[in-house]
Amino acid sequence: MTTPPISQKLPAQAVRPARGPLPWGWWLLLAAVAVAVLSPLLLLLWQSFLSNPFFAPAKQVGVSAYSQVLTDPAFWRAFGNSAVLAGAMIFIAVPLGAILAFLVTKTDLPFAKVFEVLLLTPIFVSPIVLGVGFIVSLGPSGFVSGLFTQLFHLASTPWSVYTLPAIALIAGLTHVPYVFLYVSTTMKNLDASLEEAARLSGAGVWKVMTSVTLPLVRPALVYSAMLMLLLGFEIFGLPLVLGDAKGVDVITTYLYRLTAVTGVPAYGPMAVVAMILILLALLIVFMQRALTRNKGSYASLGAKGYRAQRLKLGSWRWPLAIITILYLLYAVIIPMAGVLLRSLVRSWGPGVDLLGALTTANYAAILSSPDLSRSVVNTLVVALVGGGVAVAVYLLVALGIQRAPKGASRTLDYLAGLPRAVPGLIMGLALFWLFIFVPALKPVRPTLISIALAYMVVWLPYGVRLLTAALGQVSKDLEEAARIGGATATGAFLKATLPVLKPGLIAAWLLIFMQFVREYSSAVYLLSPGTEVLGAQIVQLWGTGAVDSIAALSSLQIVIIVAVYSLATRFGVRPE
Amino acid sequence: MSSTLQIENLGKVLGGNTILDGLNLQVEAGEIVALLGPSGSGKTTLLRCISGLETPDAGRISIDGRPVYDAAARVNVPPEARKLGLVFQSYALWPHKTVSQNVAFGLEQRKEGKGEIGRKVAEVLEQIGLGALGGRYPGQLSGGQQQRVSLARAFVTEPVLLLLDEPLSNLDAKLREHARAWLREALKASGKTAIFVTHDQSEAMAISDRVAILRGGKLAQYAPPEQVYDQPNSLFVADFIGNPNIMDAQAVSTEGQGVRVQVNGATLEGVGVHDPELGGKVRAVIRQEHLELGSPGAANTFPARHVNSVFLGAVWEHWVEVGADRLRFHSPHKLSGEMLTMHVPREKLLVFH
């Protein structure tokens, strides 16, 4: 007997793929994410077509707000400035970031490991703090400026930090770390034998970089360039601080001033500017996806078992190291040192004896001011508790993308990525309006929950990406073995996957903690007595010119972030 | 008396491809069955469908007479309720639990008493030879030890059916040979019904009572190992098992199970059990160990041209050419001469279409 007799009872059935019902849990998650992400945007869209605020009893639907904005020369000036900044960021940050990435990962540049850490620091420092840093160090009364004029016996410095070219340069230089991060990660995954083959054929270091390495990481370069384009239009803190003196506006600060100027918030035009920015960002994100989709990665994982020899720079070693140090000095160390120094002195400016003016009075002032001390505490609470809740939410969304049926999974993926196209400032504004619009949400607005919610939505794409990567590290086998052993689907996840996921969860929570502390633009519109947080508070104080408090608060923010960052790297966490 | 496992007309489509196509299989109590086949044949999918980790699209699966999947009756029992054991290829030991905790998991899910659990776990670890390692973590064990823990975990809940996914593929070659014998012993001693998936033929034949060869989502042959080896029911099975010689021949006449073929001018007698009424061009299969030198003029011999000889240490491997085909056979001696006379016993010359 070789084959068993075929049962006569069961007719042969046509084989068709099974189509089961969609489990309601994933439906619920999809609905929740859709509401959270889409309702602020829809409200903005609605408001942009109204002549009056959406809660006003009398309003007309039309394009009056659009024509108001699009015929305002100030708007177009701001748009042009944004474009200049974006262009500067692309043409400064991408080449510099790519070359630094190459030097640090592939060559025998001295102090490479130290540079790697230092080069990533600006990612964790609030841009507004950096902007303040530039003013207190390189501005007209900055301490570096003071040293310079004294040294060369000049009346004033030959440079200014307040002009458009200066802001563009600073924007470009401070965004190098983003390009560096992305490109260096890609370079590390390159098969080293490709470069070694070039060296064996007689190519020098520069030739290897331009003919082999950079072309191989072209997808990363294109992605970074698109990212710079996007960030260039979304940038807020830096131009807010530096553009004030000479009235250099970009789109985001133009929006911000639409509130402050007339005293009465101009809801319609604000919504219009917001919609324009969102559409522009969506276009850029779309281009980014299209350009990098088919390229995939030329990076092959190759034989990674051995450590490739680093390329020798020869006589260029120390000059390049010095250039890197100069860059770090200018873009990272001086601004941050400037802020710290400014927070510790009583008076400031040329001719002041800095050592004699050292004081802790600024910090004392913060402790004694209820608003300001609250902002420190609130920030920590939002970052700790809000960050923890955010990680749980992001985990749920990541699980949904991984496990829900195809249609639901793909929709969830797109929705989770949507906030990427919305600058924090605008998301904060939209959520602020949403809290007014929906009566049920009214009690939330004056609490820290409103801030935590705003942060959670703004950082959704980042967090979901983190958690997706963490989930990907855990083998599906573990959960399946638990199900065979008798656990239900949820039980198996909780008992088999979750414990193994813990390190990844902690790493994600640390990274999100840092971002929540650093965050500033999203909470600007949600600021109210009791919900002050560091970043947004600094923005508000900037309007009053209280540089003492600003310097002290900024220093506190830096200290918190540096502390958590060093803790995180101890856990082996790398910024994504 | 119902079989331990009965699969009827099972179908599964994945990504547009038909992985399982009207498959039927029956496994009796205490049997060990190997699912063997080339990659893409559906053997792992079949195992996962039996376990409940994947859902088929058509057909019926019954365990001990009880349907756990029935497309028509809309029955689909989830994996946790099927009371099976599954040994994963990667062992899937939970790294955050000790060996004892790993093994105890299934018993805890069945809400057995703490004392009972402790006793059973200790007993099964003792049986498997890992009595002293209960407190260790999987990361501290060798590959072979991890495999045994995985087996113990599957055993301890006394499942009706034991499933194994490539149980030996993660072990190094030397360990694998020992493990083969040990696994069959352990399974037979426990009396469990077991089904395992493998791509390794020797493993399949060494461990199982019956081999199920899958091809294109269907069963090609389902028989004890000796039968699959000596009496393959098709050219595919004959070719799949081992590395036999295959050559073109011309069928001349058939006589019941016997068939006469023409090879290189010589007439040979062979068997064509599964393809009666053979005529015209056919394929003749001779296993390497059945092809030998013969005396010219003797029965069932044919001429072949000696083209190459390779020294393998234990034997010489000789290559001969017959028409467009190359055949090989082993002999302890070196050979010389261009034309050789080859001999094959009648019952070892298998003829297929």
Protein model, in words:
The complex is a heterodimer of chains A (about 575) and B (about 350). Chain A is an all-alpha fold and about 575 residues long. Chain A has 2 domains: about 85-295, Orthogonal Bundle (MetI-like fold); about 360-575, MetI-like (MetI-like fold, Orthogonal Bundle). Helices cover about 70% and strands about 0% of the residues of chain A. Chain A has helices at about 25-50, 65-70, 75-105, 110-120, 125-140, 145-150, 165-175, 175-190, 190-200, 205-215, 220-235, 235-240, 250-260, 265-295, 315-345, 360-370, 370-405, 405-415, 425-435, 450-460, 460-470, 475-485, 490-520, 535-545, 545-570. The longest helix of chain A has about 35 residues, at about 75-105. The N and C termini of chain A lie far apart (about 60 Å). Residues about 1-15 of chain A have low confidence and may be disordered. Chain B has about 350 residues and is of the alpha+beta class. Chain B has 2 domains: about 5-235, P-loop containing nucleotide triphosphate hydrolases (Rossmann fold, 3-Layer(aba) Sandwich), CATH 3.40.50.300; about 245-350, no CATH class. Chain B contains 8 helices and 21 strands. Chain B has helices spanning about 45-50, 100-110, 115-125, 145-155, 175-190, 200-205, 225-230, 235-240, and strands at about 5-15, 15-25, 30-35, 60-65, 65-70, 75, 85, 160-165, 195-200, 210-215, 220-225, 245-255, 260-265, 265-270, 280-285, 290-295, 300-310, 315-320, 325-330, 340-345, 350. A 6-stranded mixed β-sheet of chain B has the order 7-8-9-3-10-11, with helices on both faces. A 5-stranded antiparallel β-sheet of chain B has the order 2-1-4-5-6, with helices on one face. The longest helix of chain B has 18 residues, at about 175-190. Chain B is elongated and about 80 Å long. Chain B starts with a strand and ends with a strand. The interface of A and B includes residues 1, 6, 20 and 481 of A.
